[in-house]
Specification:
Blueprint (H helix, E strand, L loop, with lengths): L6 H20 L21 E6 L5 E6 L6 E2 L48 H8 L4 H7 L4 H6 L3 H13 L6 H16 L6 H11 L3 H7 L13 H7 L3 E8 L4 E5 L2 E4 L3 E6 L10 E11 L11 E10 H4 L12 E6 L3 H6 L28 E8 L4 E10 L10 E7 L8 E2 L5 E5 L4 E5 L1 E9 L5 E13 L11 E9 L3 E10 L4 E12 H8 L4
Antiparallel strand pairs: 1-2, 2-3, 4-5, 4-8, 6-7, 7-10, 8-9, 11-12, 11-17, 13-21, 14-21, 15-16, 17-18, 18-19, 19-20, 20-21
Helix pairs in contact: 1-2, 1-3, 5-6, 5-7
């Protein structure tokens, strides 16, 4: 690891020096003896290099000792007189020192350690044991020596047990687990850095039992946890994007704006200098929670949970020309969002457990009825449309081309038609620019099964395009638009008409198609 030069690190070195002074003051004086009490040889006095100035000549360097005359370096071969030399008379210190580039000329070329690094490892370890977790973590970025010493399992095991193993607020079951972990440590040697990683991982998710209890409260309207937004804000969850170009260079971008809705959150990344689009190779999305330590934000420890890894070719197939990136925007559905953002690892995403409904061999149409749909169209400013449609069903005769059809809004039933409260658009802004993407918005869809458990959850941007063939209608006269979405599990189709007189859009048709493979796998059927 390369040393990092940052003004924030010297603060922790000052703490290190203060602890060093305390430890040194506690050590009894041993004149003429080493740290272990053994006799040691007295080192000769260090020769000093002092500048002198002779009349009519430039400044020269000479050697000065306690028992020799001041001899210029140009006269090193001169013989030293054999008779006793009187002691040197103290002279006034010169006020014109050597240039900065020649002050350390007498230092041996192979000596690169400072005074702290010359201390024995035992003394360094004794000092590090007295540092707190923040200082111990930050000092590991000074150089390779401190990086190796600061990962000692004994120090971090002590800090872990002091913070989590001796807390009276922990339940008895949790205490038994901690004691068991500490006892196993005595028998089995842990790898280097194990307790350091365990300490920071526990801090990053030490309240997971608390927020898991908060997520048990379900909103009957959306079928999702009611306190997802509050948990995300309390846990200070953020999302970062890591891009890698074709040459192998990586760059990380932090989120700039977040927008919460009733069933999803929209995140925008617009700060920083993005590379050209044609130079990108891969893109990774991580959920991040930083550990609350007093250290520079650039090296602040935390937990990264991989949520998505995409190739640029899968994001956009039209990459012709040297396009520049102004912003990146994504929307995340609330279903298991907290778990996906915190409980995964930096290289492996969190696996969502599948909730299997109870098996029913009596109902011949099991898995084809009892669905509930909640759908929302929104952007970064306002909600465009929101609807709740219970008791959706499909007959066996309506299964067509591997999909079951669920009709939420029927074109012929005018009472079901829903107006859009705003224009379909997506506002955006960056550091220097801002604008609006026309005929584009975010769609959040939640389909619940008969047991009111999430069956298909989607949160994605969608676009509204002009229909090629406008259906004939006596009720509406205006332009017809289509909003479509499709993935491996299902597809959505919405028909929107624009009334010129009212200058308003109406949603007149909404159909959900679910893959029959997904239905058979979830309900254990063979349709």
């Amino acid at each position: 690891m390369q040393p990092i030069c940052n003004h924030g690190y010297w603060k922790y070195l000052d703490n290190f020096a203060a602890v060093l002074e305390r430890v040194w003051m506690k050590t009894p004086p041993t004149e003429g003896r080493g740290p272990t009490g053994e006799k040691k040889c007295r080192r000769p006095k260090r020769r000093k290099i002092m500048p002198i100035k002779s009349p009519g000549s430039s400044t020269q360097r000479c050697l000065a000792t306690n028992n020799a005359k001041r001899v210029p370096l140009t006269q090193k071969k001169a013989t030293v007189p054999s008779h006793p030399v009187p002691s040197r008379v103290p002279t006034k210190r010169l006020t014109s020192p050597l240039p900065r580039s020649t002050r350390h000329a007498a230092r041996p070329a192979g000596c690169t350690q400072n005074h702290i690094e010359q201390l024995p490892p035992e003394i360094l370890m004794k000092i590090l044991w007295n540092l707190d977790a923040s200082s111990l973590y930050c000092i590991s970025y000074v150089n390779k020596l401190f990086y190796k010493l600061a990962k000692n399992n004994g120090m971090w095991r002590k800090k872990y047990s002091a913070k989590y193993g001796e807390s009276k607020k922990l339940k008895a079951k949790h205490m038994d687990e901690v004691v068991e972990k500490l006892s196993v440590m005595k028998v089995q040697e842990r790898p280097e850095g194990y307790w350091r990683r365990l300490y920071f991982r526990t801090i990053a998710g030490n309240n997971h039992t608390k927020w898991l209890k908060e997520l048990r409260t379900i909103n009957p309207y959306t079928g999702l946890p009611s306190h997802t937004e509050r948990v995300l804000r309390e846990q200070r969850v953020a999302w970062e994007i890591t891009v890698c170009d074709k040459s192998g260079c990586e760059g990380t971008f932090e989120q700039s704006h977040t927008y919460y809705s009733d069933s999803s959150v929209t995140v925008c990344w617009s700060n920083g200098s993005w590379p050209a689009f044609h130079q990108l190779s891969t893109l990774q999305l991580h959920g991040v929670k930083k550990v609350p330590l007093k250290c520079p934000s650039a090296i602040k420890p935390g937990w990264w949970s991989l949520m998505a890894q995409l190739d640029i070719d899968t994001i956009s197939k039209s990459s012709q020309g040297q396009l520049s990136i102004a912003f990146v925007m994504a929307t995340f559905h609330y279903h298991r969002l907290v778990e996906r953002s915190l409980l995964g690892s930096s290289i492996c995403p969190y696996t969502i457990p599948e909730n299997m409904p109870p098996f029913d061999d009596v109902d011949p149409n099991y898995g084809l009825h009892g669905y509930t749909l909640h759908i929302t169209l929104h952007n970064t400013v306002t909600e465009i449309m929101s609807g709740h449609f219970p008791e959706l069903f499909c007959r066996k005769g309506q299964i067509h081309e591997g999909f079951i059809q669920l009709n939420a809004i029927i074109r012929s039933k005018q009472s079901q038609h829903t107006p859009l409260s705003a224009r379909v658009s997506l506002p955006w802004r960056s550091d220097a620019l801002e604008g609006t993407v026309k005929n584009c918005c975010m769609m959040s869809l939640t389909l619940l099964d008969e047991t009111q458990m999430p069956f298909w959850c989607v949160s994605t941007p969608v676009s509204m395009v002009l229909a090629n063939e406008e259906p004939f209608s006596y009720d509406y006269q205006g332009q017809h638009f289509l909003i479509k979405y499709q993935d491996a599990e299902g597809k959505v189709q919405m028909d929107v008409v624009r009334l010129e007189e009212q200058r308003q859009f109406f949603l007149i048709n909404l159909v959900i198609y679910i893959s029959i493979v997904k239905v058979n796998q979830h309900f254990g059927r063979a349709y």
